[in-house]
Amino acid sequence: MSRFVRGFRKYFRLYIRCARTAVSAAVAYRMNFAAGMIITFFSNILFPLVTIVIYGAGLSFPGWTFYQVLLIQSIFTVSSGISNMFFQGIFRETNNAVRDGVFEIILLKPVEPLFYLAATSINPESSALVAGGCVMFGLSAAHVPGITGAAVPVFMLFILAGICVMLGLTLVMAAVSFKWVGNSRLPELFGSVLELAKYPLGIYPHSVRTFSTFIIPVALVASIPAAVLTGRVESSYIAAVIPCILLVLTGIVLYKRMIRMYESAGG
């Protein structure tokens, strides 16, 4: 146990140091950093544009008010911001290193490759995405009646599960990079699957609901957490946490397996 604790402390200190370095590097050019943060923050205003148009035309998603749908999309924005900030860079850095045939440099580091990639690809500018999503969340939650404190613990569980889904998808994409070099279209493919999480789960056919809840559980990124807050709890939602855990474990195992198969061929 003491060995585990020492190892945890080592990696924790390294991660904090890398995070500080990332922030220092980002603010080295203060005007560029500030401009990027401002643009990212206000670009969130355009994100729910489709929803604004639909409800502005007098239409709606059945059973969902405008602010309830906005609640879903604000949760999606926050989750995406957390993903971009802390682990989305794993795919980008893996893809670039494999393409250039220099991944062995990462393997020579005295830490786990996954940890190294996550710690050295922190993106502080994505904090503006999180902030923008939080503003949207506060605005929408203020106009949604019936949100109770009792729903918050379950809501936070599903938020964590949704972040695990995004981590799992990132790891799978990164693992595929070892064989499909230069796969610039892969994020678009997985991104199109994530689009399902931006809108109420009930508007999709039964097959799509099953796929997005139990196969690739992207519904837990935003749809299901918002449903919990608005009182639309179903017993099957708890079972959907299991595929989230399995997706992360699959991503880790697949990534480590692909590392063993790495041949430094480049792209």
Shape, please?
globular
**What share of the residues lie within helices?**
55-70%
Biggest β-sheet description: none
Structural class: mainly alpha
Unreliable spans: none
Can you give keywords for this protein?
single chain, 267 residues, mainly alpha, 69% helix, globular
Task: Break the fold down into its secondary structure elements and pairings.
Blueprint: H1 2-26, H2 30-43, H3 49-56, H4 66-86, H5 89-100, H6 103-107, H7 113-120, H8 127-142, H9 152-176, H10 186-194, H11 206-215, H12 223-229, H13 236-239, H14 241-261
Describe this protein's structure:
The chain has helices at residues 2-26, 30-43, 49-56, 66-86, 89-100, 103-107, 113-120, 127-142, 152-176, 186-194, 206-215, 223-229, 236-239, 241-261. The protein is an all-alpha fold. It has one domain. The model has no long low-confidence stretch (mean pLDDT 88).
In short:
With 267 residues, the chain is mainly α.
